[in-house]
Amino acid sequence: MKHDVLELAAQLSEAELSQQLKVREFTEQRIKPNIASWFENATFPLDLVPELGKLGVLGMHLKGYGCPGRSAVEYGLSALELEAGDSGIRTFVSVQGSLAMTAIHRWGSEAQKQQYLPAMARGEVIGCFALTEPQAGSDPAAMQTTATQTADGGWQLNGVKRWIGLASVAQLAVVWARTEGVTAGDAIRGFIVPTDTPGFHAVPIEPKLSMRASVQCDLRFDRLELPADALLPEAKGLRGPFSCLNEARYGIAWGALGAARDSFETALAYSAEREPFDRALSSYQLTQQKLVDMMLELQKGQLLALHLGRLKDAGQLLPEQISMGKLNNVREALKICHAARSILGGNGVTLEYSPLRHANNLESVRTYEGTDEVHTLILGQHLTGHSAFRG
């Protein structure tokens, strides 16, 4: 491809290239022909879920229990290709694998892993991850949802969550709550909650201007009773949910580039075909400047994502490095989508073309799993040694 000026494809192994091509073909055949109608009608394609399971992208970075066990780079490339279709589809894969499945795989009991992970990897069971609350979106330490131990050793959940992806279509939720009667550092615990449990209420958030081919919900727990074995035994404190968030943030650093690449390629092709004033739009200096600027940021973002992937596969990836990838790549991807839309002129505001849809979606991607401000302060703390989160 002419726009791979740095020939980054040469940095990938045959297995990585094969995985990328497989997911790209799936996206071209199953997502792109349908995404405009899914987005317009605010429809999440549930029939795609088992197909994603067969594709091997659900929990694909996890090993054992029916999970594919692929590399971090292969997962990143898959996220990129899925988000070239739509952020909502990549978000499903992220919520299922990087959040819900990772929580069970890393912090669950052996029985919980055996019970849930194989079916989730096949796409037969959908999971969601309930951490964010209406009053504490960026501050999980301030969560108010409570888990109170009952006389028989079980638990009762009470509280609310917001912006929980897939909750109204999921069969299970990984819910994080503040427990009582334990030391402050261990107060946050995780629970596996079947969504048909009495007291579990999920209401889709509508209407939305972003992520319309996805589902986000408000949750409410009203005296929801759980058995003792619903607790994730190894997750104590915020380390549990944060470890899952870092998995999701890593995937976002790759995925956002898919939206950017698709927008760039759309604008590049359009500018070659469009002939204002009897010349190809791509022959004008202002258009070429936009295309070059987009290509530069796209390739720099790909270099960053690939470096993060190599570090992750080597077991050396640090949280501040993940923040750098999420902050930079989503921010620059959004700029690329807006620049691409400008090349399309008036046609760019229709669903026939992808850049504005991608840009709308990226407004959500930029917000979830840590806003720009949160990741800026994470990096600021790394640079200065001072935390600016609390006075």
TrEMBL record:
<keyword id="KW-0560">Oxidoreductase</keyword>
<dbReference type="InterPro" id="IPR036250">
    <property type="entry name" value="AcylCo_DH-like_C"/>
</dbReference>
<comment type="pathway">
    <text>Amino-acid metabolism; lysine degradation.</text>
</comment>
<keyword id="KW-0274">FAD</keyword>
<dbReference type="Pfam" id="PF00441">
    <property type="entry name" value="Acyl-CoA_dh_1"/>
</dbReference>
<feature type="domain" description="Acyl-CoA dehydrogenase/oxidase C-terminal">
    <location>
        <begin position="237"/>
        <end position="383"/>
    </location>
</feature>
<dbReference type="GO" id="GO:0046949">
    <property type="term" value="P:fatty-acyl-CoA biosynthetic process"/>
</dbReference>
<keyword id="KW-0809">Transit peptide</keyword>
<dbReference type="GO" id="GO:0033539">
    <property type="term" value="P:fatty acid beta-oxidation using acyl-CoA dehydrogenase"/>
</dbReference>
<dbReference type="InterPro" id="IPR006089">
    <property type="entry name" value="Acyl-CoA_DH_CS"/>
</dbReference>
<feature type="domain" description="Acyl-CoA oxidase/dehydrogenase middle">
    <location>
        <begin position="128"/>
        <end position="223"/>
    </location>
</feature>
<dbReference type="InterPro" id="IPR006091">
    <property type="entry name" value="Acyl-CoA_Oxase/DH_mid-dom"/>
</dbReference>
<keyword id="KW-0285">Flavoprotein</keyword>
<dbReference type="InterPro" id="IPR046373">
    <property type="entry name" value="Acyl-CoA_Oxase/DH_mid-dom_sf"/>
</dbReference>
<dbReference type="GO" id="GO:0050660">
    <property type="term" value="F:flavin adenine dinucleotide binding"/>
</dbReference>
<dbReference type="InterPro" id="IPR052033">
    <property type="entry name" value="Glutaryl-CoA_DH_mitochondrial"/>
</dbReference>
<dbReference type="GO" id="GO:0004361">
    <property type="term" value="F:glutaryl-CoA dehydrogenase activity"/>
</dbReference>
<dbReference type="Pfam" id="PF02770">
    <property type="entry name" value="Acyl-CoA_dh_M"/>
</dbReference>
<dbReference type="GO" id="GO:0000062">
    <property type="term" value="F:fatty-acyl-CoA binding"/>
</dbReference>
<comment type="pathway">
    <text>Amino-acid metabolism; tryptophan metabolism.</text>
</comment>
<dbReference type="InterPro" id="IPR009075">
    <property type="entry name" value="AcylCo_DH/oxidase_C"/>
</dbReference>
<feature type="domain" description="Acyl-CoA dehydrogenase/oxidase N-terminal">
    <location>
        <begin position="20"/>
        <end position="124"/>
    </location>
</feature>
<dbReference type="InterPro" id="IPR013786">
    <property type="entry name" value="AcylCoA_DH/ox_N"/>
</dbReference>
<dbReference type="Pfam" id="PF02771">
    <property type="entry name" value="Acyl-CoA_dh_N"/>
</dbReference>
<dbReference type="InterPro" id="IPR009100">
    <property type="entry name" value="AcylCoA_DH/oxidase_NM_dom_sf"/>
</dbReference>
<protein>
    <recommendedName>
        <fullName>glutaryl-CoA dehydrogenase (ETF)</fullName>
        <ecNumber>1.3.8.6</ecNumber>
    </recommendedName>
</protein>
<comment type="similarity">
    <text>Belongs to the acyl-CoA dehydrogenase family.</text>
</comment>
<dbReference type="InterPro" id="IPR037069">
    <property type="entry name" value="AcylCoA_DH/ox_N_sf"/>
</dbReference>
